[in-house]
Amino acid sequence: MFIELDVHGDVPLQEQIAHQIIAGIASGTLKPGKTLPSARRLASDLRVKSTVVHKAYHTLMEEGFLQERYDGKLGVLIPALNEMPRVTDGYRERLAKQLRALAAEGRARGMTEAEFSKACLTIYRSDLTRMGDSLE
Predict the structure, then answer these.
(1) Mean pLDDT of 48-71
(2) Are 42 and 35 contacting, i.e. CB atoms less than 8 angstroms apart?
(3) Could you tell me if residue 25 is inside a domain?
(4) How many domains does the chain fold into?
(5) pLDDT of residue 1
(6) pTM, whole model, 2 decimals?
(7) What are the C-alpha distances in Å from 127 to residues 20, 26, 102?
(8) Residue 65: what are its φ and ψ, rounded to 5°?
């Protein structure tokens, strides 16, 4: 599994890992039933502390994007499609908060409502392969 981290960016490393795993799920690159590397192994591959990967995995398990294996082996896996998390009020609130901040910045930069809407739709309709394909 390949994950690309921006160690000098503003987004915490555990969030970058979580976002790229979600993108892999959304793009279909990470299929239901796929077991992810152990936190220690992925941390070693990424050259980060294992606590960073543990935090990413823990967040994804809390949100329902990952499950612990219960077949006698250790690890986490991608759940079946019918077990994936759905849109919740918490997600809607987080989405609205982030979009409000971006909309305000766009208005301050002179972006029109149509331009902002088009940018949102373009991103939503993208196939996410830029991130997802790099996860295998």
Answers:
(1) 92
(2) no
(3) yes
(4) 1
(5) 61
(6) 0.78
(7) 13, 9, 22
(8) -85, -15
